[in-house]
What does this fold into?
Amino acid sequence: MKLKGIFPALVTPLTPDEQVDTAAMRKVVRYCLDGGVHGLVVMGSTGEFPAMTEEMRRDAIETVLDEAAGKVPVLIGCGEPGTQRTIAQVRVAAKSKADGVLVAKPYYFPLDQPAVTRHYQMVAEASELPVVMYNFPAMTKTAIAPDTLAKLAAHPNIIGVKDSSGDFIGLQRYLEVTEAIDDFSVMIGSPALTLAGFQIGAKGGILAGCSLAPKLCADVYNAFMSGDMPAAIELQKKATLITLIGGFGPNAAVIKFGLHKLGICGPTVSAPLALAAGQDEKIFAWMRRLGIDVK
It folds into this structure.
């Protein structure tokens, strides 16, 4: 697959007893597709993947793939504290109709760069699906160093990296060290950096918050690709506000709260995550600034 465009990191709607709400999952997928996104990610960080049982993973993945029905590429998030457990997830993913896997680094033990390299090489060798690496040092303790990325990007089964570090200089280094590698894509993880990232060579974004504002995120990319920079700049000013989400609570909880008010899914998040009470009007005001119509 060619990795490009806007991929929302989907929330995983849950019933009040914390089972996957497959009907609501379908609504989330349709809402994002209607917003014009170019791909989907299921079981990413926003999808609360560390809290999901194998049964819940299966239910979410099968539902997303069925509802997407080949309209756009779908990546399945895979990440465990160890490499062999990650490989087991990747092998399960390969039995589905997914287009690739988004693979996090092991997130319990601190890793040095040789360990990061070993992890991704072993996963890439074992995977029947293309692998997208995931740099999120705030959650995994260790960043993928640019030199490490350069080595791994040369692997024929590694097609890209999602950078959620929020470090623009680091993003630029990623682009520099992979510039000569054909068909390798650097994808932005922060909605605040999308336009600037596109301007220096990023191929798209795998974005937290995008499942609440999919059209806005897609519109930034489309305006840039069409050469309409004045429109892209104005849209980016709004998209940057998505990153204020962390001030209200966990990403998944805030997004689900917003989607609940839009009639798309319930607000339940996996324990122990929760959204603090008394923020409704603040979140509504934030959503309106994103161009989302809430009463």
Notes: The longest strand covers residues 158-163. The domain at 5-241 is CATH 3.20.20.70 (TIM Barrel). The chain has a mean pLDDT of 97.
